[in-house]
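Friendly challenge for the regulars: who can give me the structure tokens for this chain first? No prize, just bragging rights.
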Amino acid sequence: MKLDLTADIIREFLEYDAETGLMIWRHRHEKWFSEGKQSKLHNASIWNGNLAGKEAFTSISNYGYRYTTILENRLMGHRTAWMHFYGEWPQHQIDHINGIRTDNRIENLRSVSRLDNQKNLKLFSNNTSGVVGVTWKKKLGKWCAQIQVDNVPMYLGIYANFEDAVAVREAASMKYKFHDGHGAKKITSVDNTGEYTGPKILLST
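First reply, four minutes later:
Bragging rights claimed.
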């Protein structure tokens, strides 16, 4: 039974706590079930006994996002949270502001273009300087500052002092309106109350 999922259907199937980001399965009416060897009522009773009142979107994709299936539609948790809260599917990508892809609190979600989403990337694990866009050039014995804007790499110069390279990179981030969290170290997790259980966000300032 594959249908276009409206806000009414999403809200009938799910409770959403915008403060914690958790979604809970609601009791599901028998009309949503097919009848085969067992009646719709029987199938609904089994489903509700197993899942009603329990957390939804407990599966995690290879990319770290919560997902589930509703009426043969595979749904991502962050996009469904947006739909539940605002009553419409997001027109663009959903950015997790703090970088935790399982943290679907509404305050942690924003609808942005792909290019704007790239302006809130967290610090890559292979970064050795601790600051996004600043790298050590061993052959020169100096620091290189660079930035990528709308998929176009921009060279910002070579500097003897690390602090100078950082200052130039941060000035470029402000000029091109990168998000304040861009280049922050990743937080590992957030608990059900919305409190972070991993290390605090550390900006490059």
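The longest strand covers residues 142-149. The first helix runs from residue 7 to 13. Your move, everyone else.
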